[in-house]
Design a protein that fits this description.
single chain; about 140 residues; alpha/beta; three-stranded mixed beta sheet; two-stranded parallel sheet; globular
């Protein structure tokens, strides 16, 4: 998973252990947005609104409709809404074409030199998605 904070020039990256891989890509995309939201509310003090860009049309649609098709997606969506309500945070999830999502894509593949091409000031940080993110 890769999350890029373009304002602070920080690239967050996480690799799943081999025994967890195998979920649908949609779950990973939604987990990236959920993780970005979690990172935002824990670090942002000066605003309570944010826009998160995703190259997953399904993820954008899920946040616009607030309807999930299975229990894992529903858990992540509900957890996101819980954060928004608890923190009085407003969120928009907007689509960015995949061919314009260079930095986050590079981070998710741990291609850090490629990320530096698009954001020369970026610093890299490992992160772990919230422990209950997948209902564990």
């Amino acid at each position: 998973i890769g999350v890029w904070d373009s304002f602070l020039h920080v690239g967050y990256h996480f690799s799943f252990p081999p025994n967890i891989k195998g979920h649908d890509i949609f779950i990973y995309e939604l987990l990236a947005v959920f993780s970005a939201l979690d990172l935002l509310v824990s670090r942002v003090l000066f605003t309570r609104t944010a826009i998160i860009f995703s190259d997953s049309g399904n993820t954008v649609s899920l946040f616009n409709s607030l309807r999930a098709s299975n229990s894992i997606l529903n858990h992540l969506l509900k957890s996101s809404i819980d954060i928004l309500l608890k923190e009085s945070f407003q969120l928009r999830v907007l689509h960015i074409p995949g061919d314009q999502n260079h930095v986050a894509d590079a981070l998710s593949r741990q291609k850090f030199q490629r990320a530096l091409l698009f954001d020369p000031d970026i610093s890299f940080q490992k992160f772990t998605p919230p422990q209950d993110a997948l209902g564990a």
